From TrEMBL:
Part of the twin-arginine translocation (Tat) system that transports large folded proteins containing a characteristic twin-arginine motif in their signal peptide across membranes. TatA could form the protein-conducting channel of the Tat system. Belongs to the TatA/E family. Pfam families: TatA_B_E. The chain crosses the membrane at residues 6-27. One of its GO terms (biological process) is protein transport by the Tat complex. This is Sec-independent protein translocase protein TatA. Keywords: Cell membrane, Membrane, Protein transport, Translocation, Transmembrane, Transmembrane helix, Transport. Its main location: membrane. It is a single-pass membrane protein. The keyword Membrane applies. It comes from Aequorivita aquimaris. The gene is tatA.
Length: 63
C-alpha cells in the first residue's frame, strides 16, 4: 500500500501528481531548486542547533 494516510482521507498517486503540477505552475521550474536548497539549509541549522549542549551545562563540565 503506497498511499499516504491523512485525517481527511487517502492521498493516491494521481493526487500527488496533481499537487506536483500545481506547485510547478505556481513557482516555476527554476524557483523550486532554490526553495528546496533553502529548506535543506534551514533543516540543517535546526538539527545542528538541537544537537548543541546548553551553555550552562558546558561550563559545569569544565569544572
Amino acid at each position: 500500500m503506497s498511499a499516504l494516510f491523512i485525517p481527511l482521507g487517502v492521498i493516491g498517486p494521481w493526487q500527488i501528481v496533481l499537487i506536483v503540477v500545481i506547485v510547478l505552475l505556481l513557482f516555476g521550474g527554476k524557483k523550486i531548486p532554490e526553495l528546496m536548497r533553502g529548506l535543506g539549509s534551514g533543516l540543517k541549522e535546526f538539527k545542528d542547533a538541537s544537537k548543541e549542549e546548553p551553555a550552562d551545562k558546558k561550563i559545569d563540565d569544565n569544572k
